[in-house]
Amino acid sequence: MTDITIIGMLMEHWISIIGIIIGGICIAVGVHFVPVGGAPAAMAQATGIGTGTVQLAAGSGLTGLLAAGYMYMTLSAAGTPGISEIILICATGAVGAMIMISVTMLVGNWVYIYGVGVPPASAKKDYDPITGDPQAPYVAAGTVGQGMPTVCFVSGAIGGLLGGLGGSLVYCMLMWVNGDAAISSIFAIGVFLVNAVLPSYNIQGTIEGFHDPKFKRVPKAMLACFIASLLCGIIAVMIPGMSAFGGA
Amino acid sequence: MEPAMGMGLVALMGAAATVAGCSEDLESDIGSQSNPNSQVQLAAQVGYPHRIFNKAISGEPPSNAMYCAVGAGVAMVLIQSMNASPLLAIAIGAFVAALLNGVFSTTSYMGRSASQTRFNQYVYLDVLRNQILSLMGHAYITTFCIVGLSYVMWNQDLIGHPFPFPVIAMIWGLAVGAIGSSTGDVHYGAEREFQDFKFGAGLNAADSGNITRFAEAGIRSSMDNAWFCSKFGGPVTGIAFGMVVFLDNWRSTAFDGWISVAVGTAIVILLIIYNRQIETYARKKYGPYPEYSGDIEA
């Protein structure tokens, strides 16, 4: 370890830093796609999923990370995964996250429709941009919509895709650096949370998806997450795995 | 691994996840954790003191992630350093997590209620005594099931996932909290907390904090809420978490490479189509709100 300088490490792993930055930006953009209604949605007072931005994005993205981690292990049996294998691993993570968030939104809609007796409706648009269904007449008095109409559902699935993709990419890049699944998984969770928390300042509690006016703030989040991911990437590539210390 | 063995394990994990999801939601309903807690907290401040348990330790995902990671950590230590039987180790790990839940619930209830004395909200010791054990019991079931399914994923002779045991449990704990908070809690927050109001609408912002404080018989307690939510909110949360664990593991166990990605994408597309069908059903069944006075035709 003594002959490895910090600059040498950065130069050796610059591709991994770029991968972590791309992954971080994917996570940041994905968070904006997820229809989050926060506390009001839990009282059917706002459109979207009735929980917090970070928690939902992390729940789905990290479920995808589990699938990606398993796929990485399977593919790495034949040697260090290359670009084509990384694409497959990221796709697996993305689909895992999409399944988690889609099931959550579907069952959430069961509760809204059968348990609370409300039709899903968006208050941000007069007509659903995908199905063209009128929304305003179905919004209950004193609320700003409820449930997940089709546009929110599709937006949420895209958000899961980007979140899972970003998380898996960060994990793969870290595995390239240290080859240690334990360190890589924990650091990938950390990078995921950093990039999920920063955009939540843009979202301020609730967002319906890509049709929400708040979605236009995405570039600011991308810039913030670029800087944060760059810092995370620089630190990440300097953390050696257990193998560097002679461990397993 | 034999394909039949793999499918059996995936089915076992799905079953454990279903139980975990259900008990997680009921635990949060008894304790009024997560988002519906905002109304329980607000009630006394707007003149409606109550006897509902009030514990917003944190969001459900971080708190469940903590219980599961602690449970898995204890179990791992027992398995690796004392050669304990995995079942016994997981049971002890879940018990430690349940004790943590008890500590957090107690301090949270006492602290929150005590800070509202100026609004005539008392600390009811009988509420604490009666409900703390059921909270801990539900937390035990949730942690036991999640640590158990994480053990199946982690064990090198079974699925052999590369992540450490506590990290797998933490991720599933985070996921079960996110799912419980997004699905079952809506049944508690939007329906059970406001049963005095007409069925078929979300909470009108003007009625915030006016929670239902009288039960089918006597004053409503959090046990009554668990009884109600166990009929729908809890089971659907279990179905949701069970579906996530089963579908995600099934596609990666039964198929390889890009086929598993394609199968996962097909599942998502089917879910989008099914969601559209129930959305259309709800719009036809319930119709537009009669109070609506805008120009857009339904």
Calculate the mean pLDDT score of chain B and round it: 92
What is the number of beta strands of chain A?
2
Strands of the biggest beta sheet of chain A: in what spatial order? 1-2
What percentage of amino acids of chain B are in beta strands? under 5%
Query: How many domains make up the 3D coordinates of chain B?
Result: 2
What would the keywords be for this entry?
heterodimer; A: mainly alpha; two-stranded antiparallel ribbon; 65% helix; elongated
Describe this structure in words.
The complex is a heterodimer of chains A (248) and B (298). Chain A is an all-alpha fold and 248 residues long. Chain A contains eight helices and two strands, in the order αααααββααα. Chain A has helices at residues 6-12, 14-33, 38-42, 53-75, 83-116, 150-178, 181-203, 218-236, and strands at residues 121-122, 145-146. With 298 residues, chain B is an all-alpha fold. Chain B has helices at 3-31, 37-45, 60-82, 86-114, 125-154, 165-182, 184-191, 222-229, 233-254, 257-286. The longest helix of chain B has 30 residues, at 125-154. Chain B is flat. Chains A and B meet through helix 3, helix 4, helix 5, helix 6 and helix 7 of A and helix 3, helix 6, helix 7, helix 9 and helix 10 of B.
